[in-house]
Design goal:
Helix content is 44%, strand content 24%. The protein is α+β, with helices and mostly antiparallel strands and 85 residues long.
């Protein structure tokens, strides 16, 4: 797959495009394992949604916000309840 092709072509870096629930982690794992300069771009068509937080506030969110929320929760910057919204 991605990792095999990049190694076979002996590339110095990659620009990775993904927009599916399975291709995103695949691309990111390949980038991490190859240890090359890489740029990842999310190209999916998932429409943004609205999250309603425990304090009553609302925010338009995308899939990238979901990824960032998991990281914020692991660092103690966001509650698990807000992540599950």
């Amino acid at each position: 797959s991605v990792e095999t092709v990049v190694q076979a072509e002996r590339l110095d870096g990659t620009v990775l495009l993904a927009g599916c629930d399975k291709s995103i982690p695949g691309m990111l794992m390949a980038a991490a394992r190859l240890d090359l300069a890489s740029v990842f771009l999310y190209t999916g068509s998932i429409m943004p949604g609205v999250a309603k937080f425990a304090d009553g506030s609302e925010k338009e969110v995308t899939i990238i916000d979901a990824f960032e929320a998991v990281g914020a929760c692991s660092r103690g910057l966001m509650s698990r309840e807000d992540v599950d919204v």
